[in-house]
Amino acid sequence: MDKIQKRLLEEVADLHEIPAGAYNIRANGQMTARNTTASINIVSKEGKSGIDIRIKPGTKKESVHIPVILSKSGFKEVVYNDFYIGNDCDVVIVAGCGIHNSGALDSQHDGIHRFFVGRNAKVKYVEKHYGTGEGYGKRILNPVTEVYQEEGSYVEMEMVQIKGVDSTIRTSKAVLSKGAKLVIKERLMTHGKQKATSIYEVELKGEFSNADVISRSVAKDYSNQSFEANIIGANICNGHAECDAIIMDQARVLSIPKLDARHMDAMLIHEAAIGKIAGEQLIKLMTLGLTEKEAEECIVNGFLK
Amino acid sequence: MDKIQKRLLEEVADLHEIPAGAYNIRANGQMTARNTTASINIVSKEGKSGIDIRIKPGTKKESVHIPVILSKSGFKEVVYNDFYIGNDCDVVIVAGCGIHNSGALDSQHDGIHRFFVGRNAKVKYVEKHYGTGEGYGKRILNPVTEVYQEEGSYVEMEMVQIKGVDSTIRTSKAVLSKGAKLVIKERLMTHGKQKATSIYEVELKGEFSNADVISRSVAKDYSNQSFEANIIGANICNGHAECDAIIMDQARVLSIPKLDARHMDAMLIHEAAIGKIAGEQLIKLMTLGLTEKEAEECIVNGFLK
C-alpha cells in the first residue's frame, strides 16, 4: 500500500495500522486485506462485487472495518455489501470511502449497503467520505444504505463527509420494528462547486419505535446542498428530525423534511435552521487574536464536531 | 337571499347584515350586491368571470368584502379576482366561500386571486371556507392566491377552513420586495373523508424582507391533510415557518416544509410537530366535569383559535 492509500485509509477509517478484529480493505476494486474472527465472517459475493458480513448472535465488543480506497483516476465501481447482525450483538462497523483523483477522468464508488439487524442487537455504524487529488476528474460517491431493524434493536449511524467529494447522492432507508431505535448523525461540509444530496426515509413501523435524525452541515463557496428527510409514523412511535446548516459565500442549501403521520399515536417533530455564522461569535474570536478566516474555521469545526 | 345563503354569508364573512364599505356579493355565479366607495372601486372583468378591485393610494381604515356563496348543487365556477392596492393604504379585505350542497352533484368554486400591493401599504386579508348540506355531492374549493408585495408593504393573511369542505387544494404564492413583510396564519380542520392540501411558496426576493408562515390544523376521522411550505431566501432576509397538527382517529397528516437558502445572509427557520391531544389535558378537563368528547372539542377549539 502506497503513501496516498495509507493517507486515505487514515481519513476514512481512522486506521493508522491494521485494525484489530475483522476487516476487509478494498483498493481500486481489489480486496487487498481481509481478516475474520470466530464471530465475524466475511465472504466475497458470487456473481457481483461486494461482501457478505455475518456476525454471530451474541457477539459483543467486536468491530468490523471495511474501508474502500480509490487512487486510480477514472476508476468506477458499484459494490454490494450485506451485513447480517445476529440477535443480541453489540458491534461497531466502520465503512468509509476515500478517493484520490489526480487525473482527468471521473472516479466513482457507489456502495450499496444493507443491514439486517437482529433482535435487541446494538450497532454503531460509521461511514466517512473523503476526497483528495488535484486532477480535473471528479470524485463521486453515491452510497445507498438500507437498514432493517428487528424488535428492540438499536442502530446509531454516523455519516460524515468532510472534504473533497465533488458530487454525492446519499440515499438511506430504514424500517423499524417494535421498540427499535435509530439515531442518524450526519455531518457534511461542501466547498468549491460541490453538490451533495442526502435523502433519508425512516419508517416507524413497529409500536414504540423511535428515530432521531440530526444533520449538521456547512456549505461554502459555490457549493450546493440538498437535505431530504422523510419520517413516516405508521404506529405509536416517536420521530424527530433536526437539520442545521451554516451557509457561506455563494452557496445554496435546500432543506426538505417530511413528516408523515399515519397513526394517531405517532408523535413527529422537526426543526430546521439555515443561517450564516453569527457576527458576535466571529468578533469574539477575533478579539482573542484570530484572523477572520481562522475564527470562521474554528466555528465551523466546532459546529461539525 | 334565502335563509341558507344568509347562514353561509355569516360563516364565511362574519356578515349579519350588509357590510359597511365596499363589497361584492356573488351567489351561484351571479353578482347579487355591490357597493363601491370614493376610494375603492369594483369592476366586473370583461371576457371572464371575476372582478377588479382598485383601492386608491392612501386609503386607510376601509374594508372590502367579497364573499361567494354556492347553494345550487352541481354548480361549478372559476372566478378571477384582482386586487390593486395603492401605496400607503391600510385596508381589510374579507373574501370567503360557503358552499351548501344538498344534492347528488359536486359543487365547486375555484377563486384565483391576485394581490398587487403598493409601497408601504398594509393589508389584512381574511379568507374563510365553509361547507354544509347533507347531499352526496362534494363541496370542492381550489383557491389560488398570488401576492406581489412592493417595498415596505405588510400583508397579513388569515386562511381558515373549519368545516364541511370535502376537497381542497390551496395554492398560495408570494414575492416580497425590499423590506416587505408577510404573515400567513392558516387554520384548518378536516373530518370524515375530507382531503386538504395547502401549498405555500414565499420568495424573499428583496433585502430585509420577512415572512412568517404559521399553520395549525386538526385532522379527524379518516381525513387526509398535506401541508407544503417552500420559503426561498434569495437575499438578506428572515423566513420562518411553523406547522403544528393534531392527529385523531384514522387521519393522516403529511407536512413538507422546504427551506431554500440561496443567499448567505438568508436566515430561515422551520418547526413542525404532529401529535395527538395530550392525555393530561384531557384528564384535567374531564375532572372538571366534561365528557371525553367535550374535552376533546374544547382543546381542538382552543388550538385553532
Describe this structure in words.
Chains A, B: Residues 93-303 form the SUF system FeS cluster assembly SufBD core domain. Chains A, B: It comes from Sellimonas catena. Chains A, B: Belongs to the iron-sulfur cluster assembly SufBD family. Chains A, B: This is Fe-S cluster assembly protein SufD. Chains A, B: Pfam families: SUFBD_core (PF01458). The structure is a homodimer of 305-residue chains. In chain A, 11% of the residues lie in helices and 58% in strands. Chain A has 305 residues and is mainly β. In chain A, the strands form two sheets. In chain A, strands 2-1-5-7-9-12-14-16-18-20 form a ten-stranded mixed beta sheet. In chain A, strands 3, 4, 6, 8, 10, 11, 13, 15, 17 and 19 form a ten-stranded mixed beta sheet that branches. In chain A, helix 2 (279-287) packs across helix 3 (292-304). Chain A binds chain B through residues 233, 245, 247-276, and chain B through 233, 245, 247-276.
Question: Could you give the topology of this structure?
Answer:
The structure is a homodimer of 305-residue chains.
Chain A: H1 3-13, E1 22-27, E2 30-35, E3 40-44, E4 51-55, E5 60-70, E6 76-85, E7 90-100, E8 107-117, E9 122-132, E10 139-141, E11 144-149, E12 154-163, E13 167-176, E14 181-190, E15 195-204, E16 209-219, E17 224-233, E18 237-247, E19 252-261, E20 266-275, H2 279-287, H3 292-304
Helix pairs in contact in A: 2-3
Family (chains A, B): Belongs to the iron-sulfur cluster assembly SufBD family.
Organism (chains A, B): Sellimonas catena
Domain SUF system FeS cluster assembly SufBD core (chains A, B): 93-303
